[in-house]
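Hey,
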Amino acid sequence: MDTGTLPPQHDYEGLSVLDEAALAWRREKVFLALAGLFLGTLAMLNIIGVSRFIDLSFRVPLIGWEVPMVVAIGVLPYPITFLCTDFISELYGRRRANAVVAVGFLINIWVALILWLGGLLPQPEGADSSAFLHIRTLTLGGVAASMIAYLAAQLVDVQLFHFWKRLTKGRHLWLRNNGSTLVSQLVDTTAVILIIYPMGALPPVPGGETVAMHLIGLIAASYVFKLVAALIDTGPFYLGNHLLLRYLRLPPPTAPAPHGDSS
């Protein structure tokens, strides 16, 4: 499915055969929904980004260990972006997944441009723009960091997804879903924390900790959050993939591909 053309309609027992126009619209509608959710989530997390850090620390039952987990609020919706690209990779192929990643990169630039321009234009006399300027400073710094990390992480996600898919010959959906996401999120988390540290946007270093320990702790906390989210989304990914394959009349991963089709 890397040619940009989806395979012909698969005949599922119990499902009606769709005419060509209805099938094409159904497939494009789902792609637009997945791409829209991905791009909208991306724009939102880049704006809220590191504007606030939240404390999700918890105590392990029975053992009593305190597990520190301080994460940026932008981390909360971030796993959705990887779920969307995994769906697009699985259903529409690597070319479309890479195209959505590229558009997401341009959206990063668009958000930064509007914030930069908004800070240059004059405002009414006496107006308080402190909130905007604070968000602008954090967002521009966060966008600069996330543009580098995001592009690397999303491209790693797409490439690894298809690597695992080829290696397993379309089987073991859980492996390519989790394997691609977990590696790419480690790349993203590490890059973002290390890039934004010099900007002063991270929580202050607690007493008794070195800068290195503090950064490792923040990277670990964000990554563990994403790790848990990625493992949790395995169920929805399996279910969603099963339902969407039938809805879009696409062949199951183990079904023989039409001649000339390549995933």
